[in-house]
Amino acid sequence: MAKLLALSVCFCFLVLGASSVTFRQQGEENECQFQRLNAQRPDNRIESEGGYIETWNPNNQEFQCAGVALSRFVLRRNALRRPFYSNAPQEIFIYQGSGYFGLIFPGCPGTFEEPIQGSEQFQSQRPLDTHQKVHSFREGDLIAVPHGVAFWIYNDQDTDVVAISVLHTNSLHNQLDQFPRRFNLAGKQEQEFLRYQQEQENEVGNVFSGFSTEFLLHGFQVNEEIVRNLRGENEGEEQGGIVTVKGGLSILVPAERRQRRGDRDFNNGIEETICTASVKMNIGKSTSADIYNPQAGSVRTVNELDLPILNRLGLCAEYGSIHRDAMFVPHYNMNANSIIYALHGGAHVQVVDCNGNRVFDEELQEGQSLVVPQNFAVAAKSQSEHFLYVAFKTNSRASISNLAGKNSYMWNLPEDVVANSYGLQYEQARQLKNNNPFTFLVPPQDSQMIRTVA
Fold first, then answer.
1. Which one of 44, 268, 306, 416 has the lowest number of neighbouring Cβ atoms within 10 Å?
2. How far apart are the C-alpha atoms of 303 and 299, rounded to whole Å?
């Protein structure tokens, strides 16, 4: 999956801009006809503890024509740009400096196992840390960041890191509007593009700050102190999106190896023949579940790999059954909008936007539907003995990214990144990462042991 996502965004700046302009001209005949082009400078700067971010106005007609948004960021020594994801794919060019970065690909295993060096007493306090691959970067590198994939970056050298980022807002993968959005996953930080939306106040917050304490306590199975840090309640706005790591970040990075990977074509001549294609598949509760927990419920999905005709429709579906007081953890759809229809019973649903605002916080009852936009974080807790739902998704191979639980965004971050992003002690960071052992469905709290800080 990681290979496919990375390949989908391997464009250079020139190709990205040219292809976007062509697409817009075909769809809107007069959209890109100019009497004059203008050289422009960034007109907004956001200061943070460890650096700053500068932006160009994405509402400028030229940027809108090209379907892109442009920004620039500077990381000083030991500066960490805290994790975030975006509604559109992006490319980042490293103009100066070197360091490390990580991408959290949903569904991919944590393949880096980091032994902690030191005394036996120290090792007993901090066990092995497991996380997804950490990459090094240097001057001249181009980094491709797929839409909806959480990203973080760190400068471990004395030289400032200077990077330019372009978001391809006109990408077919972006099913929101053309406005660029950063969905911040830690701290209190200003949306770098939000000031250009005049009808909205420039609020600060991260995705977790929009969820209630109750939902986060249940989803992560930690105590309230950790949840407050998760929501960014225990810090000032001056820290921002780029924080300084005292003493430096401790992460495991092996020597780079040059690998050649072959492309893989998933199309099949027989499956492409529409006249002989299968047109149905049962995903109801009588079928085998993809996710199952006897105390929480089950989820079954179908996409173009199961039913190839869905590729032509650009759709897929999910069927779920959740027991009373169980929940599905906070997560987001990386590449699709989701239309949830309640088949039976009811569930308390919370949806959070990129500003950390809770835009839905009600019971979804039988016969009602709810649209959850792409990248908006969502969680639900069943209010019935069995809450049954079907979700239609606007991508033939829709992908989700869990924010809590086993193999989630939080699970796959290096422990030092968790501790420094949320201002936690290492014991607390380990609890935030590992206390919820469930992949997607979490049983009722009274049916499990909740681990808290001693």
1. 268
2. 13
114-128 tens-digit pLDDT: 665 554 544 445 557
Contact between 349 and 369 (Cβ < 8 Å): no
Q: Higher confidence at residue 323 or residue 367?
A: 323
The H or E element containing residue 114 is: strand 112-114
The length of the chain is: 454
Whether 345 contacts 385, CB under 8 Å: yes
Q: Is the dihedral of CA 194, 332, 330, 250 positive or negative?
A: negative
Structure tokens at 234: 């225990």
Interval 11-28: pLDDT, tens? 333 333 333 333 333 344
Amino acid in the structure at residue 129: D
**How many Å apart are CA 126 and CA 139, to the nearest integer?**
34
Distance CA 187, CA 204 (A): 9
Q: What whole-number distance in Å separates Cα of residue 140 and Cα of residue 119?
A: 40
Tell me how far apart the alpha carbons of residues 33 and 11 are, in angstroms, rounded to a whole number. Answer: 24
Token pair in block for residue 422:
């949320």
Residue closest to 249 by CA, chosen among 154, 324, 342: 154
Q: Which of 292, 317, 287 is nearest to 304 (CA)?
A: 317
Cβ 153 vs Cβ 103: under 8 Å: no
Tell me the C-alpha to C-alpha distance, in Å, between residue 262 and each of 4, 6, 392. Answer: 11, 13, 33
Rounded Cα–Cα distance for residues 205 and 64 (Å): 27
454: exposed, middle or buried (Cβ count in 10 Å: 0-12, 13-18, 19+): exposed
pLDDT, residue 177, reads 84
The CA radius of gyration of the chain, in Å to the nearest whole number, is: 22
- The 8-class DSSP code of residue 254 comes to P
Amino acid type, 444? P
* Angle, helix 415-422 to helix 426-434, in steps of 10 degrees: 110
